[in-house]
Amino acid sequence: MSVNLLDARGTPLDQQRFTWRDLVQDPISKLDDDAFTRVRIILANGLEQQANRFQHMCSQMNKELREPLAMIRRVEHHQQTMINWLLSSDHSPIETTIGYEQVAIEVTAAIAQQEPDPYLAQVYRFGLLEDFDHMYRYSALLDRVEGKDANNILQSYTDIVPGRPTVDEHRHPTDDLRDHYDRKTAAPVSKMNALTIMSGEYQTRDYYMNIGPTFSDPVARQLYAEIASIEEQHVTQYGSIIDPDETMLEKWLLYEANEAYNYYSLLESETNPRIKAIWERFLEYELGHLDVVKNLFKKYERRDPAEILPEALPTPIPFESQRDFVRKTLEEEINLRANGTQFVDKSEESKASLDYRNHINSEGSPSEAVSAGYQWAPGTELARKSS
């Protein structure tokens, strides 16, 4: 299918309605559904969560837009509800965490390969290797706390091996800032990619901050605190690649276009017919939101949305294993570090980051403690022969 962003009208806003039974549908199966169905659900939840957050902030700063923001935001909230409630209750918090990290790895890897800007592609690869290591640390935690094999969730799509060590990822805040794209010259897909990855990382940061204190295991509590801090760094990194000179309505246009793009991508790859119908429905809803914002953009900025939006949506994001690309990136770039906005060999890392890292790790590293002696093998600790 093809979607013309400039002409599409989608479902009219006044027809976007829900009931409680409609909102809370049967969840997916943890083991029987394909892992990428879970990946798509988690990503879509992050996109809706960030759209809601952005629209609340806009409403606090703009009185004239408050009514359309409130109307669209209510629908976005209910879309997020329907999506998030698709996760089944038999996922433990750590298993859900494994799902979040699989999203970060596979989606970031896919976007890094389609990103036309070499610097932005490097930004994504840099973050990718850190998420890859987080997967390894949480897999060790799952084995420690629940005696479970993370591959039951990953379904062999994603490797469970160390990446850039989490203990080495802690940086001074100024070394997490990146050069932003130029709103006047950047490709539309570059702008959408930035919103997609930032949204995914933001929801991961929030999830870890909320779930971490619920554990009784002291290493689990510390590990969630440590990796949540890295996720905050990632939100800083990905947020800083967005051009700050975009107007509020320009950003809102891009948010709605990006949601449409992502639902289009989800729809193209979904294997569960029931979930596929949800993606199709929400694609039409987002096109309806976009139509409202296009008219607001014309009214208040007296500009043509064609200045911002592409006529056709970019090539869909592929939802498939990116193992070969991740392994190649790991082999070639594991020793990269950040110095200001640039990526350098670890021998050239900034003193500010080294000092920050030495202090925060001075009383021990949870990510090192949880994985001490851990090496992933099929099965669980109960399936291994005692030495």
CATH class of the largest domain: Mainly Alpha
Compute the separation of the termini in Å: 57 Å
Please give the number of β-strands: 2
Approximately what portion of the residues adopt beta-strand conformation?
Answer: under 5%
Supply Rg: 21 Å
Main pleated-sheet profile? 2 strands, antiparallel
- Average pLDDT number: 96
Give the structural class.
Answer: mainly alpha
Q: Could you say what the CATH topology of the largest domain is called?
A: Ferritin
Which ranges are low-confidence, i.e. pLDDT below 50, for 5 or more consecutive residues? none
Order of helices and strands: HHHHHHHHHHHEEHH
Tell me, briefly, the overall form: globular
Range of helix content:
55-70%
Using the 3D structure, state the CATH architecture of the largest domain. Answer: Up-down Bundle
Can you walk me through this structure?
- The chain is mainly alpha-helical and 387 residues long.
- It folds into two domains: 1-87 and 247-314; 92-245 and 319-387, Ferritin (Up-down Bundle), CATH 1.20.1260.
- 59% of the residues lie in helices and 2% in strands.
- It has 13 helices and two strands.
- It has a two-stranded antiparallel sheet with strand order 1-2.
- β1 and β2 (342-345) form a beta hairpin.
- α2 crosses α7 (188-211), α5 (118-146) packs antiparallel against α8 and α7 runs antiparallel to α8.
- The longest helix has 29 residues, at 118-146.
- It is globular and about 60 Å long.
- It starts with 19 loop residues before the first helix and ends in a 17-residue tail after the last helix.
- The relative contact order is 0.17.
- The mean pLDDT is 96.
